[in-house]
Design brief:
The chain has 132 residues and is mainly beta. The protein has one domain (6-131): Pnp Oxidase, Chain A (Roll). 5% of the residues lie in helices and 62% in strands. The protein contains one helix and six strands. The protein has one helix at 68-73, and strands spanning 6-13, 16-34, 45-60, 84-91, 94-108, 116-131. It has a six-stranded antiparallel β-barrel with strand order 1-2-3-6-5-4. Strand 5 and strand 6 form a beta hairpin. The longest helix has 6 residues, at 68-73. The two termini are 18 Å apart.
Length: 132
């Protein structure tokens, strides 16, 4: 019996890989817009807008060209615009690519281990590649 295994996930900023993704999850939702009219006995719906969000654990690169935490926490910047990141997730031969806004980040580190950050994100603009 075969199974899928996550691998090769990355976080990209300005076409530079700034972190390796070690664990991730993503959830997509579609609004159900009611089309029920007076006199109908049963509810009816059509699909509306899609919303997606998720979380990931990333390995924090010491030599990354962009300091992720500075972008999320906006250290030494005057911009109030959210930073847009590209997330590339892969499992087996399947790929999920999208742009996202990182909404939360938490660093963790312990002796003898690779420094990691847990992030939450919201997908912006839908999926640019979805090969499932």
């Amino acid at each position: 019996m075969s199974y899928y295994s996550g691998r090769d996930g990355s976080l990209v900023y300005n076409n530079n890989v700034i972190a390796k993704v070690s664990e991730w999850s993503i959830t997509a939702n579609v609004d159900a817009l009611t089309t029920t009219t007076l006199g109908q006995r049963n509810e009816s719906y059509v699909p509306g807008n899609m919303d997606a969000s998720g979380g990931a654990t990333i390995l924090y690169y010491a030599d990354a060209p962009v300091t992720l935490i500075n972008k999320v926490f906006r250290v030494n910047t005057v911009s109030t615009d959210p930073e847009i990141f590209t997330m590339k997730l892969q499992y087996s031969t399947k790929t999920i690519n999208f742009n996202c806004v990182i909404t939360q980040a938490a660093l963790s580190c312990k002796t003898g281990d690779v420094m990691q950050a847990s992030i939450d994100f919201k997908v912006t603009g839908g999926f640019s590649a979805l090969v499932l």
